[in-house]
Amino acid sequence: GESVGLHLPTLSVQEGDNSIINCAYSNSASDYFIWYKQESGKGPQFIIDIRSNMDKRQGQRVTVLLNKTVKHLSLQIAATQPGDSAVYFCAENIGSYKLIFGSGTRLLVRP
Amino acid sequence: KAGVTQTPRYLIKTRGQQVTLSCSPISGHRSVSWYQQTPGQGLQFLFEYFSETQRNKGNFPGRFSGRQFSNSRSEMNVSTLELGDSALYLCASSLKGPSYEQYFGPGTRLTVT
Fold it and tell me: How, if at all, do strands A10-14 and A105-110 pair?
């Protein structure tokens, strides 16, 4: 199977602070990007998406930024809460009817 | 609206056996994708179906197969199970395909002994 990474970096933030989770995507032809949140024992949960014709998109407490020049995606979470603790995945679609997932980042929220 | 459902949630099989996993998409969704998730390899794409047609397949051996029915429900089958097939198998559905909002089910945890 396709390998999308073996290591899981961890981001530790204080409750109430803002969190920024970064993702480098692989294909300059990718036209659609998604962020997912996965809690232990559950399937990934859709957070927010963005298409390649946009640079920024905001949701409730979350913002996704897309920098196509350096193939970089970021997820910003405002006022991070304990319930935000999870593994976050970015995924890209290159129009081939499949998503390619990043290796994930574990977010730990300190009380 | 009900979410994506997968059955069974947990399964224990022996090497050499075969297994069939089922996925019911969100009502109205016609695209179903399957992924394998393991701690070492992360989330890997298995295949995607739309209106009973497989549109893409990941780099998995032929022991992994799937199908989609006219009501958009999907099944995947793994034959001649190997220890390395132990994983969380996730199904996701969307209206038109992976370039639209895709929602995941809770997964089926397969353990091969």
Answer: parallel
Shortest Cα–Cα distance, B56 to chain A (Å)? 6
Nearby residues of B67 by Cβ (< 8 Å), 6 or more positions away: B49, B52, B74, B75
A59 by DSSP, 3-state: which?
Answer: coil
Beta strands A62-67 and A105-110, pairing class:
unpaired
Instruction: Enumerate residue ranges in chain A where pLDDT < 50.
Output: 1-6
Instruction: Give per-residue pLDDT as tens, B88-102.
Output: 999 999 998 888 889
Chain B residue with minimum CA distance to A94? B99
C-beta atoms of B58 and A1 within 8 A = yes
| Whether A42 and B106 lie within 8 Å, measured CB to CB | yes
Verify whether the Cβ–Cβ distance B97 to A97 is below 8 Å: yes
